[in-house]
Write a structure and sequence with these properties.
Blueprint: H1 6-31, E1 32-34, H2 40-64, H3 72-94, H4 98-101, E2 105-107, H5 109-128, H6 135-159, H7 164-168, H8 171-185, H9 202-224, H10 234-260, H11 268-274, H12 277-284, H13 292-321, H14 329-351, H15 355-387, H16 411-415
Parallel strand pairs: 1-2
Helix pairs in contact: 1-3, 2-3, 2-5, 2-9, 3-5, 3-6, 5-6, 5-8, 6-15, 8-14, 8-15, 9-10, 9-12, 10-12, 10-13, 12-13, 12-14, 13-14, 14-15
């Protein structure tokens, strides 16, 4: 028997995608041009970094979302769909002020990388509603979340003079809080008990671990690609610091996983949620990390915080605040992101020789966090209210975490 809401994809998804894509093509045709000035060597070096970020966004987050046993097609396929749409929208919003000065927006490899990094914040948010939303929901969430994150960047840079690297690395905090508010508004009654199909098996866990491996391997590029390389050693320091933080968090997460398991065994889902925490935390504090031991300490603390969050906060958030966080984005991105923010504040004050400058930095740093939290929470709630409208046809509870509601399967797959 066909899924009850299968026609909604035909009547809503196809028109939405065609309308948006046609609009993007028209905007690019009249208002966007490629920046062709630049050195060939710079292109060759930057293209490799662009491909690394591309792997993170498409393969890393895509495979990471395949851990649900009957939601692998949607986890990877919808990730690609959201990334493709959100990146185009981010490119348009990235340089939209140039329309006033030059009448044209210009794109290059750097703007592509920035657009994909902003899209990563949307992919973090969609992880909270993974399996409980249809692709129309995910497209709307991606476009609105990217718009909100770019607005947050502009506010931080305009009012607080936050550097572009530090403002864009707030994506972990923004994306996780946005997603938590979103899933709170979209809460389904009865979510205190696991959904029938909300589980993973050996095959889906293996594919999901592949996504974690992609993210782990290419995360140093993600943290260092926008670092100013005019100062010798800064980019190298960001790469080395990120790798060391990732290595320490991986080892610490494995140890804590064994200690927290009653049978003394490793938990695959546990590792996937905590193994990247060091890279997330050091990414926010990368401009203040000067020594290897600092990055390693941040990685260790991030793994501990992420582990505690995975074990306790996911359940308590569900029971106390009715936030059903499918992919545990709070423990994998939110808490490590906040830890990285605290580490950045401490390291910056420690290295400052002028108390007045240190106090001023602390005030601006705190204001940046408060603006990010306020905007992400507000926009997350508003987006949730929009997506909650019955017009978008959310899947029934019995259709959650099930690819057959959206994908055509061969007969053998259906029988199985």
């Amino acid at each position: 028997m066909p899924p009850q809401y299968a026609p909604s994809l035909r009547s809503r998804l196809a028109p939405l995608l065609l309308l948006l894509q046609t609009g993007f093509i028209i905007i690019f045709a009249f208002y966007v041009e490629i920046e062709r000035k630049g050195k060939a060597d710079a292109f060759i070096n930057f293209y490799a970094e662009f491909q690394d970020v591309n792997v993170i966004v498409i393969l890393g987050f895509g495979f990471l979302g395949t851990f649900l046993v009957r939601h692998g097609f949607s986890g990877s396929g919808f990730n690609l769909l959201v990334a493709a749409m959100a990146t185009q929208w981010a490119l348009i919003l990235n340089d939209i002020e140039s329309l006033y000065y030059r009448g044209k927006m210009r794109i290059d490899l750097r703007s592509l990388i920035v657009a994909e990094m902003r899209t990563a914040s949307a992919l973090i948010s969609t992880g909270a509603v993974l399996g409980k939303a249809n692709p129309v929901h995910l497209i709307l969430i991606g476009l609105l979340e990217v718009s909100g994150f770019i607005l947050n960047e502009k506010l931080l840079q305009f009012f607080l003079k936050v550097r572009p690297l530090e403002s864009i690395m707030m994506l972990h905090i923004f994306g996780s809080l946005f997603g938590l508010m979103l899933t709170g508004v979209l809460y389904r009654k009865g979510s205190e008990h696991p959904f029938e199909k909300e589980r993973f098996d050996k095959k889906s866990g293996l594919f999901s671990m592949l996504g974690t491996a992609f993210l782990w391997m290419f995360w140093p590029t993600f943290n260092s690609v926008l670092v100013d390389d005019h100062t010798p050693g800064r980019k190298l320091g960001a790469v080395c610091g990120t790798y060391l933080a990732l290595a320490v968090s991986a080892v610490t997460a494995a140890a804590l996983s064994v200690l927290s398991n009653p049978q003394g065994k490793l938990n695959l889902v546990h590792l996937q949620s905590c193994i990247l925490s060091g890279g997330v935390a050091v990414g926010i504090s990368v401009s203040a990390v000067q020594h290897p031991w600092e990055a390693m300490t941040i990685g260790f603390a991030a793994a501990v915080v992420s582990t505690i969050g995975f074990h306790y906060l996911k359940i308590h958030m569900l029971l106390a605040f009715q936030c059903h966080d499918t992919r545990a984005i709070l423990s994998s991105h939110g808490l490590p992101g906040l830890l990285g923010w605290v580490a950045h504040l401490i390291l910056q004050i420690k290295d400052s020789t002028n108390p007045v400058i240190a106090i001023r930095f602390a005030l601006f740093h705190i204001c940046a966090l408060l603006i990010t939290i306020a905007l992400s929470v507000t926009l997350g709630i508003l987006t949730g209210l929009l997506v909650k409208l019955k017009f978008w046809r959310a899947p029934q509870d019995k259709k959650c975490f099930d690819d057959q509601a959206f994908w055509e399967f061969p007969r053998l797959a259906e029988r199985k």
